[in-house]
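Give me the fold.
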Amino acid sequence: MKITDVKPYPVWIGHRNQLLVKVETDEGLYGWGEAGVSGRELAVAGAVKHYREFLIGQDPMARGALWQRMYRSQYFEGGRILTGAISAIDIALYDIVGKALGVPVYELLGGKHRETVPCFATTGARSFEQLLDNVNLLLDHDWSVIRVGAAHGPITEEGATYDDPTLYEPRESIGVTADWMPRIRESVGPAPVLGVEYHHRLSVAEAASFCQRMPPGTLDFLEEPIRDETPEAYATLRRMTDIPFAVGEEFASKWQFLPYIEQGLTNFVRVDVCNVGGLTEAKKVAGWAEAHYIDLMPHNPLGPVCTAATVHLAAAVPNFAWMEVRISPTERQDYPPDEIFPLQHTLEGTGFPVPATPGLGIEVNEAYLKSESFRYWEAPHLHRRDGSYTNW
């Protein structure tokens, strides 16, 4: 069996662009993959086209060797754009191999450890009352692990005001979020798992200030409080708080995870199979984390192909906490459409059943992709009151 084509499809689906990749073979088998790096899909698609030129004619069964060839085939190896492309191709290769052998992808990763992949839900609000209502709504629907988006701010006595949605002042967010979360914990009691997502918008001092305002037992995890480029900064923050960290959704290799796992700088591994280098690399990260008694908490904000790949990874590792899902009573209910993904994994309650379908268990309407096109979209460019830019 030989690869005959590698097709990138950067197209608008639902509310965002997705970069789907189809790998075809001379035996009629094909596989689907998805790349991360949201907002820079055209750059990743360009890398996929480069890889296509030497992947044609190769054996798709040799996915480990092909991973090494893609990663090491340029002098300037690594980086999120290249590993985003490698991720999509690698996932598609696993889909092909699973179909060729007639087994689900998790069987290629060592077999399943669980029948259901538990998930966590996300919510946010413009006022404390709204946030409490949203959290209670999730609890009423049996969601026991809830991630809360930090308050955007600024806040008035009447509630949150968002006259300028691109204005973001970290200290104002800290004040509001630090007021809300202990009250949420007091209301819901000790049983639910509660975390806060800060989307790497804080400095070390700001993150420490937020953590130090949290009464003990308030939070079960704090996600991405600061940027990840400097592990030493996380080491400094680690010494200033005992709240568990959830870090790694932007990491583009096992090497980037190295200091965070080895030095205990994260307590939940937020690996993203569409960013880290696909299932080949994600499985290595999982084993490394297992050796340090750290559970995976995968990042999964993209589409059904990413979800399918993440379900298979989650099924095949022993050290697993919860998988991100963006379909819950507090988020969108009607996405993704069956028109585009006629076969996809379906959430049952608060988890995904582990499938028995060969490959990823996903199908994509390629004709739809061909009929759509890329739409320019840019993440919000946040600014502070003094006019300077800050992290989104």
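The mean pLDDT is 94.
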